[in-house]
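in:
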């Protein structure tokens, strides 16, 4: 299965727009080519399938060929994670929330880091 690149966009009455940082990432890091497909999501349930139709060094034009809406009630993503060092988990939480994770359950294990989870850390999470 081929990898699908996903970017944060905004659905407007005129169509879809990429956030400025996402556009730069698509061009400079991912280096999308003409004809390559990718996915856009706005974090509100709107998802678009698109492909690059024109590209220059500083910008590219894309065409949306399919749009869907996923109701939040239809997607229920839960993560169950063994207790890790609080600093490590601080990096996991933002990405999980962006992906739509509704619940994160941290559980203790015999040789885990659960003893380091203070009330202050739990409240921050």
């Amino acid at each position: 299965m081929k990898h699908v690149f996903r970017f944060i966009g905004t659905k407007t009455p005129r169509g879809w727009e990429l956030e400025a940082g996402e556009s730069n990432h698509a061009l400079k890091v991912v280096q999308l080519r003409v004809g390559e497909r990718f996915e856009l999501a706005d974090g509100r349930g709107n998802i678009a399938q698109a492909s690059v139709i024109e590209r220059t060094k500083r910008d590219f034009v894309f065409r949306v060929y399919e749009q869907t809406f996923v109701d939040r009630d239809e997607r229920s993503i839960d993560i169950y994670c063994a207790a890790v060092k609080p600093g490590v988990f601080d990096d996991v939480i933002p990405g999980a929330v962006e992906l739509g994770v509704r619940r994160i359950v941290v559980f203790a294990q015999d040789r885990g880091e659960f003893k380091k989870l203070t009330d202050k850390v739990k409240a921050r999470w």
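note: The two ends are 34 Å apart (CA to CA).
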